Amino acid sequence: MQNKYNHYFNFFLFSGLACFSYFFMVLYSDLSPQHQHLLISFWAFLLVVFVFNALGFSIMLINEWQKRSYQFLVKRKNQLMINCILMAGLLFLLNYLLFSIVKVLLEIPSPFALKGAGIRMIFVVWLVEMVIVSLTMVANFYRQLIVLHEKANKLEESAIKAQYVALQNQLNPHFLFNNLNTLISEIEYNPGNAVVFTQRLSEVYRYILQSQQEGLVTLSSELTFLKSFIFLHQVRLGDCIFVDNKIDPSLLEKKIPSFTLQLLTENVIKHNIINSDNPMTIHLNTTEDRKMLVVSNQIRLKQNVVKSGTGLRNLSSRYKLMNNRDIIVENDSTCFTVKIPLLNE
């Protein structure tokens, strides 16, 4: 609905510019009264309105195409300046061609030559048009800033929620109790492994603290974190949970939201039966077009486990806010799969 009103507004804006340019040139140029009478016709006026709207909407389409990048206004200041200069040049050229075509139709000698009066008239029309267009561009720029500000606030709020959930999952008493009990057991029965367990536990907490303020992290850093995270569960549950990583190394610098793999791994451990008789393998791969990370696991649901879906909904919201894309969740009763877009920035 908003786009519809914007189109109407732009149509009236370009039509208004056409009316002003048309009547100013016809009534205040150095044309004779006879020539002015010939030019004031419905079809001539309609043609001018059509030309102005065609040019105006063409420029708008180019601007919309360029602004598809989320940070266009921030990272492409030079391109924005070029667009303004291009707009000014096109308006001046359009006024000149309009005036010249009028003189051609009236068979006035040297139609493309401009005298002092003609130059002043075109320059005045151009200045008025530039003021109107500039004010419109400022209004659009302000609206765009408001949209970006609201989007950034939503993204920040979503990121904070995700970080809180991740910290809550790791720092809650249940998690600490399990890992401390495991550490005590390892110290008693396997002191060498207890040292490694302590190191991996510290790596998990270090990553959590370092990534709290990061909206996006590299796939490489998430996989390193996952390795330590899985090790803790392997020691606690027994050697019965594994990660089958088939991700192409060339994709390791791609980015995903922080704590994504931890969230998905927690879901697997929380909802499925995992023990020495029922080992679990979490498969990591990519789609054929290498644009999405695929995380899948066999389904062996625990009894009486409530499925909230909060983590996946939160992850989906973060993706929609970041680049208007979404995750894909597939469940065929035997295999649970989540597909996550890989981002460049």
TrEMBL record:
Superkingdom as given in the UniProt entry: Bacteria
InterPro entries found in the cross-reference section: Bact_2-comp_sensor_kinase (IPR050640), HATPase_C_sf (IPR036890), Sig_transdc_His_kin_internal (IPR010559)
Keywords assigned by UniProt, alphabetized: Kinase, Membrane, Transferase, Transmembrane, Transmembrane helix
Gene3D superfamilies: Histidine kinase-like ATPase, C-terminal domain
Domain spans labelled Signal transduction histidine kinase internal region: 162-239
Gene Ontology terms, MF aspect: kinase activity
The protein's name: Sensor histidine kinase YesM
Organism: Parabacteroides faecis
